[in-house]
Amino acid sequence: MVNLSELLEPIASQFRSLGIPEPITHWGHPVMMGIVVVAMGRFVGDTGWQGCLVTDKESHSKVARITASLHRGCFCF
What we know:
84% of the residues lie in helices and 0% in strands. The chain has helices at residues 4-16, 22-53, 57-76.
């Protein structure tokens, strides 16, 4: 059986040779994913709020379906 560390070491050494600062390497991905989650949550919240403000019943059901789909997508992300 092949050791995963041995398999990924050539790729890791290439990235280490780029000279990217350690804080960027360590925290870059979590920070970017946090930004995406906040942006998605804001969009879902705004869409839900628009659904509360709509007076037309047909438009309200359409916005509610879209919001429910976005909520599921946010949760899965």
